[in-house]
Specification:
This protein is an all-alpha fold. The protein contains two helices and no strands.
């Protein structure tokens, strides 16, 4: 099969895929973080709230790092 000259290279397509993925998922992540702000403000003042706040922050950090790590283009 002949390569199509008008298509970008697979590496470029992979990079564009990552940009598109991060662009589309950023609003969803920002909405989730905005929804979590009241919890992050109030939880430390409740009994056992500090532990729940740490778990919430770890969950968001894990989600974001997974999103960015798994969307990297292949070398």
């Amino acid at each position: 099969m002949l390569p199509l000259p008008w298509l970008p290279s697979p590496r470029t397509l992979s990079a564009l895929q990552r940009v598109l993925l991060v662009t589309l998922l950023t609003p969803a992540v920002l909405i989730a973080l905005a929804a979590a702000v009241p919890a992050l403000i109030l939880l430390p003042f409740l009994p056992g709230g500090t532990d729940r706040t740490i778990k919430l922050l770890k969950a968001h950090t894990t989600y974001l790092s997974t999103l960015l790590t798994k969307s990297r283009p292949s070398p």
